[in-house]
Amino acid sequence: STPSSSSVATEWLKGKSVDECLKIKNTDIAAHLKLPPVKLHCSMLAEDAIKAAISDYKRKQTASS
Question: What is the DSSP string of the chain?
Fold first, then answer.
């Protein structure tokens, strides 16, 4: 379920702005994949990865300017 959650998140990120990407929530991913409650942590990992990547991107943008 984690690879599926990450794959969905990756597809949804393509072509979106940073602000749009931050609107992607684990609940949206879980609903799309129809994840059972015991697998919700997989969609949470995907959301956490999005937030971490954006945080890293913003930090690097600030450092280079």
Answer: -HHHHHHHHHHHHTT--HHHHHT--HHHHHHHHT--GGGHHHHHHHHHHHHHHHHHHHHHHHHH-
Inside any domain, residue 65: no
pLDDT in tens, 14-44: 999 999 999 999 999 999 999 999 999 999 9
**Under 8 Å CB-to-CB from 47, ≥6 apart: which residues?**
9, 24, 25, 26, 29
Residues in CB range of 40: below 8 A, 6 or more apart:
26, 30
**17: CATH:** 3.90.1010.10
Number of separate domains in the chain: 1
